[in-house]
Amino acid sequence: MVLYPDVQKRTQPKIDSVVGKDQLPTFEDRASLPYIDAVLRETFRWQPISCLGIPHATSSDDTYVGYFIPKGSLFLGITWNEKRYPNASRFIPERFIDVHGALTNDDPAQYIFGFDRRGCPGWYTADTFVWSAIVTMLATLDISSVKDDQGIVISFTPTFITGLVG
Ligand code: HEM
Q1: What is the mean pLDDT of residues 53-69?
Q2: What is the model's pLDDT at position 60?
Q3: What are the CB-based long-range contacts (under 8 Å, 24+) for 12-18?
Q4: Which keywords describe this protein according to UniProt (predicted)?
């Protein structure tokens, strides 16, 4: 939100109109706040906690769409996709909103939590508590850059650090 204050500005009137200013959002409000889900989806897409997923290896020889894959091959599921998401490094929740203001069918949760049988068992827990954290912060806070002694904004560039969860 520090880097994309315009997004924050767009969310707050939407929350106020659905929830009001005297109470906190609840899960009953979720269906009426598609833009917040778009912020959640864009958060998952933009900075996934593991942009290469978790590595897997084949336990036997296999063939997939015509490719022979020997036993012991290493697989990484790359979740960043510049072709599917133009300006992929920019945070743009509108990617997930259609012309009618509804959510599209494109949900990054379908790939940032891994795939099929070995996918993340915490998917729904994570989805719920990250949504709750996002909507509560947007409903209660104005997030902005820190300023130095001269009143000049201290800018920063977000970066990943090494480790499983950067
Ligand atoms: C935004 C939050 C989260 C993300 C993006 C995430 C993502 C992932 C990914 C990519 C994997 C590897 C799946 C694969 O092998 O293909 C994984 C595995 C796993 N996750 Fe999560 N996860 C999140 C939150 C959680 C939470 C909240 C829990 C538990 C409550 C959890 C528990 C696990 C466990 C136990 C595995 C290992 C499953 C296995 O291979 O047996 N995760 N997660």
Answers
A1: 93
A2: 97
A3: 12/138, 12/139, 15/135, 15/138, 15/139
A4: Heme, Iron, Metal-binding, Monooxygenase, Oxidoreductase
**C-alpha–C-alpha distance, residues 33 and 31, integer Å:** 6
**How far is the C-alpha of 7 from the C-alpha of 104, rounded, in Å?**
18
Predicted structure pTM score = 0.91
In this structure, the number of other CB atoms found within 10 A of the CB of residue 33 comes to 20
Specify the ligand 1 atom closest to the Cα of 53. 10
Rounded to 5 degrees, φ, ψ at 42 are: -70, -35
Token pair 């945070």 is at which residue? 91
Interior angle at CA 46, CA 40 and CA 52, nearest 5: 115
Question: Would you place residue 50 in the very low, low, confident or very high pLDDT band (cuts 50, 70, 90)?
Answer: confident
Report in angstroms the alpha-carbon separations of 100 from 34, 38, 63, 105, 155: 11, 14, 42, 13, 36
Is the CB of 131 within 6 Å of ligand 1? no
Query: What ligand 1 atom has the least distance to the C-alpha of 126?
Result: 27
Residue 37, pLDDT above cutoff 90: yes
Q: Is the pLDDT score of 131 beyond 90?
A: yes
Ligand 1 atom 20: residue of nearest CA:
120
